[in-house]
Structure formats: structure tokens, C-alpha cells
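seq/struct pair 1
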Amino acid sequence: MVAVGGMLPAAADAQPVVSASGLRVPPPRDSLRRDSLRRDSLPRPRGQRFYTRLPYGSESQFNPISELFNEGFNDLVLYSTDMKLFGQPYGASWNNLMGNLRNVRGVVRFYGWNRVMRNELLPLTGARDGGQWLLNYTDHMLGNGMVSVRLEEWYAQHGYPAPLALSVLTMYGAHLLNEVVERPGRTSVDPLADLLVFDPLGMLLFRLDRVQRAFSGPVRMTVWSGQPVLTMPTGAIENAFTEFVTSVPVPLTRQWRAFV
């Protein structure tokens, strides 16, 4: 999906106007727009690049628990006809996943080293031939790398000790739940590429200051998360999803951004 949208005015940053009678009135709309453009052009300080405690929108709902549910049950909600939270084959899926992780060499040999390189690790195949590398690079490396920093910033801004360690634990909890919900087979190579290569690579990549600045300036990456709901009496989980969004300024304009 590609769309174009305008920026929200930074109402909190604009200064009110005091009238002759002493009453405080809202600033003019042009002032709000100029303030929004000024703030959007400034580089974000480290520690506030991907989480800024906005009191509205999906960011106001973001926290470690929502991250676990949204990423963990993303595939169950979007791709499964059975969205019941209870009654899923969690045990069998967990055993299969652990079996794959304990037998990496055997699983890769079964799948084929050449197919692993072409489909999972290197951009050498298209959608009809495999092409899993596209999701690995965009979702697991870039998207989840960014969310790992967002979580670290959330923990730090809420006063938790060791925010980096807590971020890594939360991310891997969400990753493991996501792989279990996907119901891996006994010889599934995809979770190996996700958990052992691209997830840790994304976390390491986004610890580089230049990478954080690259995706928090004019080019901005963020995440749109759902608001998970458990419906009763069916026990189905609804509206749990994760969408990664990257936006860039539209040339020759001052207040429009394109996003994908």
C-alpha cells in the first residue's frame, strides 16, 4: 500500500496568544503549520527517535504487552480462519520450533543449502520461486530492528533498569510467539533465518547511531500497531497486527509526505 498524507499540526508546541483583554486564545492556523514544519525538520535526539510518548494515535497504545500481542498473533489474525486464542496447537508448534533450532544443520541440509541462500538469505529469487528474503530484510531486519529501539526507548522513558536487555527479551518473546503461531513444521528453515540471522542482525544494525538517524530524520520509519481485543464467548482474538511504515517528504512541497 502506498499513500500520501499531510502532517498533523504540532498543537502542543505552538504558543497561545494573549488578547488585549487578557484572554488566552489559540494561535492562528498558519502558526501551527509553521511550528509543525519546523519541528519535523529538526533531528530527533537519541532516546526519542522512535518513541516520543505521543498522547494520541497508535503510539499512545504502544507498550511491551501490546508488542507481544500484536507481533505474536499477527499471522493468526491476518491469515488464519481460526482466530481463537485458546485451543491452538501451541505445544506441538513449540516442540517443532525447538527441534528446528536444535538441528539447524540437518534442517538446512534437508531444505538445501542453495535454496536457503537464494530464497532466505540473498535477493536472488522472485515471489513465484521463493522470495522469502524480501520479508526477512524489510520486516525482520529493518522493521523489528526499529521496534527494538522503540522498546528500549519506552523502557528508558518509563524508568526501567537495563532497557536494552528488557527490549531484547521482549522482542525475542514476541518473535518466538510469532513463529509458534505460524505453526512451523518439523523441518522448517524459515524460523531459523528469522530468529538466528535477521532478527539479531536488525537489533545490531539499529544500535548504530547513523542507522537510527537515517530512519528518524527526513526519512522516517515507525510502526502502526493494532488494539488487540479478545471477543467472548468465542475466545477469538481480533485486531492484533503490526504494520511497518516508512515515510519520505514529497518533493516541491513543504507539508506532504509519501509513505509505504
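seq/struct pair 2
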Amino acid sequence: MRKGRSEDTVKEQRSNEIKVGITVIVGVILLLLGFSIFKEWTLTGGNSRYAFRFPSSAGLQVGDPVSINGVKSGKVVDVALDGGEGVLVHAELEEGTVIAQGAYPTIQMLELMGGKKIEIRQGGGAPHDPSVELIGGVDPDIAGAFAVLGTLQTKVDTLATKAGTLLDNANAIVGDAEMVAAIKESVGHLRVISSDMRTLLGTNRDEINEIATTLARVSRRTDTLLAELSPRLDRGLGSAERLAGRADTLLGDVQSLVGEIRNSRGLLHTVLHDTTFVRRFDNTLLRVDSVLNIIMDGQLKIRLRL
């Protein structure tokens, strides 16, 4: 009897252990499902969710803090690639926190040795619409500084190589005996020319001074002559202007006379425009010319009786 009861007790204990194990497993599964489903929920329910777009994440992770003008105001809840247009970051800000229009977010270093944060430089004006993305930038960190130093080192190496090439060329020029001799010869010629110029100036100094004095005297006389002739020139220009005016008046009178001749019916108009009168006048002139020729030849004799 005791043996049968002990077997039942063992079976009952195993059954209870299995039930407890199944209960624990189901509870853990339910806890994981609830955490995965409701992980975005918050106890306060008043947090504001904002979207930020950056060219890169720069190591930003979920849970990193978000600060506004240096004051911690929220945390990052999501970091994801958004096609080829950079990284889209979502952050939740504490209840009552408002971002104004014109705000500019940047990803900055949280600590010297690591960690990132979003620092928002607050703007001015009306509150920003949370449904509209804020475009931000990334401040350079130590890794970026080392990258800049690496680029700078490459440029320094290139500059050093070019400087070495330049020094080699300079050394080649200086080491060329013919070039050095030519330079020395040119310097010698310049010295000779300079010496000759000094000698020439020293020898002709009096003549140069005299020429300069003469030029100054001529300049003064020219100024005096121009001052004296200025009134005469003014009067001559005035006379020329008056003469030009009279000439214009005379031309006007001539034009008027020509117009009157064309429009009138006087003798002059008849002489100029009547062809019959012109032919008769021409015949008369021819007869007068014939009579004059007879008189000049002595063929006409005039007898006068008293």
C-alpha cells in the first residue's frame, strides 16, 4: 500500500512541475509579446514625436538623448535608412516640450570617448508641426577630425614632394657651371653699366641742371604767353562765332532770293526760264559781235559832213 501511494505522489509532483513549467513558459512568451507590441507606449501618453532627417546617422542609436539648447528633452526611438536621401530619425520629446519653426537639429558627440546625441538649436516663431520633417546636419567628431587630418596629410605629402622637386631643380641650376658663369657675367655687365651711368651723370650734371632750368623757364613763359593770349583767343572765337552767324544769315537771304526768283515773273525769271527770249538775246549778241568784227577790220567807213 505504501509503495502505491508513493508512486501516486511522485506522479502528482511531476504533473505539478510540468504545469508550473508550462505556465512559466506561457507567461514568458506573453511577456515578450506584450513588450514587442507595447514597447512604443509610454506611461504619460503626452510625449510628442518628431521626425528628423540627417545625411548620415554618425553612430546615433536608439535611446540616445535629445537636447534643446543644451537641456535634455527626450530620446531617440527610431533610426532608419530612408532610400538614398539620408537617415530618418524619430524622437520623443517630453510632455510640454515645443520646437519652434526654424529649429535646426545636429548630431553631436555626447562624450569625448563615444556616444551621440541630437542637439536642437531652437528657432523662433510659431510651434513646428510634428508631422513635418526637420532637416539637420552632423557635427564633425574625432573620427571626422582624423579623416580631415588624413586628407591634410596627403596634401602635405604632395606639397613636400613638389617642394623637393623644386629644390632639386634649383640645385641643378645652381650646380650648372655655365649657368653660374652666365649669371656672373650678366651681373658684371650690370655693374659696368651702372658705373658708366654714374660717370655720365656726374660729368654732365651741369648740363642736365641747365636743361632742367631751361625747361622750367620755357614752361613759365609758355604759361605767361597763354595767359596773355587767352583774352585775344576769346575775342577771336567770339568774332568767328559772329561771322558764322552772319554767314548763316547770308545763306538764308540767298535761299530766300532763289525762292523769289523761282516763284516770281520778273525779268530775271524770264531770262532764266524763257527759251524764246534766250534765243533772241543770243542772236542779238551774235549780230553785235559781227558788227564789232567789221568795225575792228576797218570795213565800215563812216563819213561825216559838216
